[in-house]
């Protein structure tokens, strides 16, 4: 499936309409076939005492970015498909201190239902701060 402008708009709306993603300050920056880039806006509420972005916020960004990369292969926010995360791994490499960060997710393999994506998180200066993998499942719903 080729990513359409309509599906990209739906991806943007899904993030904007999901309270947890809004609370964390996520937004879709870019998406293309098998690729998604998200921004996580720095907010004190998501940090530790030293203004370091909390690892849970980074893990959530990795999960969401991998899921969005997976959704470039199916129509998000339609009754035709349903998706959910199966697994996430996160490796923290360096702290994100008091600044926005970005995550880029790329689909490594798409099976019939299961999609494997890798995600890299960089700070605003482009330094690699975390990386992970997301296993996501998208199923086609049975017609009713």
Describe the structure in your own words.
The chain is of the alpha+beta class. It has one domain: Thiol Ester Dehydrase, Chain A. Helices cover 25% and strands 40% of the residues. It contains 3 helices and 6 strands, in the order H-H-E-E-H-E-E-E-E. It has a 6-stranded antiparallel β-sheet with strand order 1-2-4-5-6-3. Strand 1 and strand 2 form a beta hairpin. The longest helix is centred in the middle third of the chain and has 17 residues. The two termini are 24 Å apart. The relative contact order is 0.20.
CATH superfamily: Hotdog Thioesterase
What CATH architecture would you give?
Answer: Roll
- Compute the average pLDDT: 95
- CATH structural class: Alpha Beta
What distinguishing features does this structure have?
single chain; 144 residues; alpha+beta; Thiol Ester Dehydrase, Chain A; 25% helix; 40% strand; globular
Task: Reconstruct the topology from this structure.
Elements: H1 5-17, H2 19-24, E1 26-32, E2 35-40, H3 55-71, E3 81-92, E4 101-110, E5 114-123, E6 128-140
Briefly say what this structure is.
This protein is α+β, with helices and mostly antiparallel strands and 144 residues long.
């Amino acid at each position: 499936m080729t990513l359409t402008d309509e599906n990209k708009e739906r991806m943007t709306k899904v993030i904007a309409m999901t309270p947890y993603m809004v609370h964390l300050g996520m937004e879709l920056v870019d998406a293309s076939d098998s690729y998604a880039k998200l921004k996580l806006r720095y907010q004190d509420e998501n940090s530790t005492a030293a203004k370091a972005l909390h690892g849970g916020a980074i893990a959530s960004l990795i999960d969401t970015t991998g899921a969005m990369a997976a959704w470039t292969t199916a129509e998000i926010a339609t009754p035709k498909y349903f998706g959910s995360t199966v697994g996430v791994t996160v490796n923290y490499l360096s702290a994100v201190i008091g600044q926005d960060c970005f995550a880029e997710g790329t689909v490594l393999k798409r099976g019939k239902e299961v999609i494997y994506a890798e995600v890299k998180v960089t700070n605003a200066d482009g330094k690699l701060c975390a990386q992970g993998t997301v296993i996501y499942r998208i199923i086609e719903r049975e017609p009713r």
